Amino acid sequence: xxxxxxxxxALALLAVGCSSNSKKELPPADLPKFEEEVSLQKEWSRSIGxxxxxxxxxxxxxxxxxxxxxADVEGLVVAMNRMTGKILWKTELDLPVSGAVxxxxxxxxxxxxxxxxxxxxTVSGEEKWRARVTSEVLAAPALNGDVVLVQTQDDRxxxxxxxxxxxxxxxxxxxxxLTLRGTGSPVLTNRLAVAGLSTGKVIALDAQRGIPxxxxxxxxxxxxxxxxxxxxxxxxxLLSAGTLYAVSYQGRVAxxxxxxxRILWQREASSSVGVAQGYGSVYVNLASGTVEGIDERSASAxxxxxxxxxxxxxxxxxxxxxxxFGDLEGYLHLVSQVDGxxxxxTRIDSDGLRARPLVAGGWLYAFGNSGKLVALTIK
Length: 379
Fold this sequence. Notes:
Layout: H1 2-17, E1 40-47, E2 62-64, E3 67-71, E4 76-81, E5 87-92, E6 97-104, E7 107-112, E8 116-121, E9 127-132, E10 142-143, E11 147-151, E12 157-161, E13 167-171, E14 187-188, E15 192-196, E16 201-206, E17 212-217, E18 238-240, E19 243-247, E20 251-257, E21 263-269, E22 275-278, E23 281-285, E24 291-295, E25 301-305, E26 317-319, E27 322-326, E28 331-336, E29 342-347, E30 358-360, E31 363-367, E32 372-378
Antiparallel strand pairs: 1-32, 2-3, 3-4, 4-5, 6-7, 7-8, 8-9, 10-11, 11-12, 12-13, 14-15, 15-16, 16-17, 18-19, 19-20, 20-21, 22-23, 23-24, 24-25, 26-27, 27-28, 28-29, 30-31, 31-32
């Protein structure tokens, strides 16, 4: 399946980057000029090994309390104080990390291209356990203190005992014929294990036993070719106040009730990077490069910003009164939550910025493709 996934990614990017009546690929849109309203101040910066590598990994760091944890593609895992950037420990796994990083309940957990899950101690960085899964892990696991939940590239969900690493249960799904290269991180509560699948479905299982609780389709495959029928949910799920948000490629963005799976609202959308939510609105970066703000009450668009076409935008994140996201040239953009206008911009990493920004306590953390991790605040 790996060569199919790589081909699928290349074809998808080509389809996005080309006009319908021309075979010539259009370049990324030029950066628009605007009057800066918000200035970002760099608090500290660290280099995390080789960063994302060349295989389109999405190695997003993780924050747990006052610590931030990051990993690079070669297996370097680093723990830092998130306020000062001081390095607390480093661990070399000597394995190709592709799913990173989950942190909490005394564990730092990463997945590898070789189908392994490795759990480290949050205080010392020492390995606590490792386990084998059925295929490569391309997104961060999820933790609830009792189990560690992993979604593999072949759409299986596997739960491990958080203390021992012993397998609790496995739930198998049949993946789509062609998929984008990637999976979203699952969501794990004390009762439910929830994941978005390559078939455009969201499934919720009992977290203790792996028994299905509900299933909801977010996207219906359409078109004659397998390429046209790709409806992966790759951007991860977002849980906020009992509402679960998901967006699919060539499908829809939807809000669902966590307990029942009932769709609260939905809207046509195509995205592989996920959504953000704040102030009664949902924000989605579409595959075309358009940034859209959606009113949760009416499911209608509040605003659209299409000035960043073909710039391969990262997942958005709410930061103060703004929406933050990166692009292929490593710029971090800030737009207003109210009307989507540009208010700030700074360059993080010339190699690009495809990992979702992290926000905690008024600080924003951006992890560039080359491994540059930067902490920012608003002046």
